[in-house]
Amino acid sequence: MFEGRNLIGGKWRAARAGATFPQQNPARLSETTGRFADSGRADIDDAIVAAEAAYPHWRALSPQARKTFMDSALQATIARRNEIAATITRENGKTLRESSSEVESAIKEMDYQIGEGLRLCGQTVPVETEGTLAWSMRVPLGPVGIITPWNFPFNVPGRKCTPALMAGNTVVLKPASLTPRTGLLFAEILADAGLPKGVINCVTGGGRQVGNAIIEDKRIKAISFTGSTAVGRSIQAAAAKNLIPTQLELGGKNPAIVMPDADIDTAVAEIMKAAFACSGQWCTSTSRVIVLDEIAEAVTDRLVAEVGKISVGDGEAASSDMGPLCGEAQKTDVLSYIAKGKAEGARLRAGGQALSGEQFDDGCFVEPTLFDQVTPDMAIAREEIFGPVLVIITVHSFDEAVDVANDIAYGLSSSIFTRDLSAALTFMERTEVGLAHVNLMSALKEPQLPFGGVKDSGAGPPEAGSTGIEFFSEHKVCYVRYR
After folding, report:
1. How far from 78 is each of 100, 104, 109, CA to CA, in Å?
2. Which CATH architecture has domain 254-438?
3. Distance CA 449, CA 386 (A)
4. For residues 101 and 370, what is the distance between their CA atoms, to the nearest angstrom?
5. Which of the residues 109, 116, 188, 249 is marked catalytic?
6. Catalytic position from the list 161, 283, 326, 364
7. In CATH, what number does 2-250+457-481 get?
8. How far is the C-alpha of 369 from the C-alpha of 21, rounded, in Å?
9. For 57-100, how does the pLDDT look when each residue is reduced to its tens digit (9 = 90+)?
10. In the predicted model, what is the mean pLDDT of the chain?
11. What is the per-residue DSSP string for 98-144?
């Protein structure tokens, strides 16, 4: 059985207390994929000490020198892409096709952010004081804490750690407890690329012990977190006590509006991808379809038919279109929302059950589920389910559709499907999200543009694009009087 240890100061170490925790394959809960260090505050202290010690040397390197190390890590990721994808599937449950797509996305994210490290430029400006040269520059922060989620256990570390390191910071990484091996594999690739000891540290364990120890430590100069809104709020409150900046990528309840003039084939295909890929466990998954009443029946019938075609099974099987949910707690939560939807009076049109039978009983499988006759006040229309549950809300006008889309706490991503340029651009103006799409799925993102939400979906500078590395640096302005 695999024994996962922490990476601290360039060495692989067991937790100081010797405690471990198991990780189960969500497709076969009887299969323990490994045991991992169940760390505590003493382990985090060791990691922060190592990150502090490594910081002066790493900061002093030129961006080009840091790029050499990170390029080696990128090439190793490319060479090991199949191994990484297989590890993701065993821990997370998503299909191998989806895991491979995640690794390819991570490669693109890392490649872009390595380049951003060479473009972290300041500016020179004329000043009133005679005989004086003035300029601004961006400088690193110090040791930073990065806390990553289980739904994208390799891509998100790549998106966060790469700009942090390229900016000259050292890192204490805490991967999600549901996917610890993937996080350790990411750290291993960086360590094997020759990064100096202590530049990258990775500590596994529970959020309350490990996460809180990182967040509450004054030696940590920034926190980047992806996860639930509730946890994000607590992180921001704790970090604020030490004036530690936070970058929070949080939950979503993402709408797709379908207008009467839409290309229905395109709309249905894009909605299906965004709703049921990775078992609906993307923060950018489409979870609400808002459709005008004159085409509601046609769109609903098409979605019912497409949901019925999804083949659910072990993510390692080539025949599977959708794998299990990532753990028993997630399965319980999703089933509770399905029960709540039925109780609220929504009409179940597809799915709605835990899958049973020889190939399902040992795993966390839930049928892809579709409700219609959903009203905007229902819990299944307002709260993040984070599973393969799609709801259909019927409205009477474009204005009502936009109002319903906006009338929730979240604001991560949205889509509209229409051929009407005026409707498309008006939607882009009015939609209250960080990522807006026309005739594209709500989950689409590219690494060269910022990624983050508004309202309860995010706080702090967005990830990716140029803002990703800006978060991990701060302004310094210099004045030099030369005559």
Report:
1. 11, 8, 12
2. 3-Layer(aba) Sandwich (3.40)
3. 24
4. 25
5. 249
6. 283
7. 3.40.605.10
8. 32
9. 999 999 999 999 999 999 999 999 999 999 999 999 999 999 99
10. 97
11. HHHHHHHHHHHHHHHHHHHTT----EE---SSTTEEEEEEEEE-SEE
Tell me the two tokens of residue 38.
């169940």
Are 314 and 28 in contact by the 8 Å Cβ rule? The answer is yes
368, 379 Cβ separation under 8 angstroms: no
326 in catalytic set: no
Residue 383 appears among annotated catalytic residues: no
From residue 206, give the alpha-carbon distance in Å to each of 19, 36, 105, 203, 311.
12, 11, 27, 10, 33
Residues 296 and 277: their CA atoms lie apart, in Å, by: 23
- Dig out the tokens for 93 from the structure: 């449950």
pLDDT score for 158: 97
The Cα–Cα gap between 58 and 61 comes to: 5
Q: Quote the pLDDT of residue 275.
A: 98
Strand ranges (E), 246-321: 246-249, 254-258, 286-292
- Report yes or no: 404 and 415 within 8 Å, Cβ to Cβ: no
Helix axes 81-92, 63-79, angle to 10 degrees: 70
Give the helix/strand (H/E) hosting 179: none
Q: What is the pLDDT of residues 107-124, one digit of tens each?
A: 999 999 999 999 988 999
| 309-315 own/partner pairs: CB under 8 Å, 24+ apart | 310/276, 310/368, 312/355, 312/360, 312/365, 312/367, 312/368, 313/359, 313/365, 314/27, 314/28, 314/359, 314/363, 315/27, 315/89, 315/92, 315/93, 315/94, 315/95, 315/96, 315/98, 315/99
Residue 267 CA to residue 415 CA, distance in Å, equals: 10
Closest alpha carbon to 346 in 381, 319, 298, 300? 381
Domain borders along the chain are: 2-250+457-481, 254-438
Residue type, 287: S
Q: Tens digit of pLDDT for each residue in 286-316?
A: 999 999 999 999 999 999 999 999 999 999 9
Tokens of residue 231, six digits? 């946890």
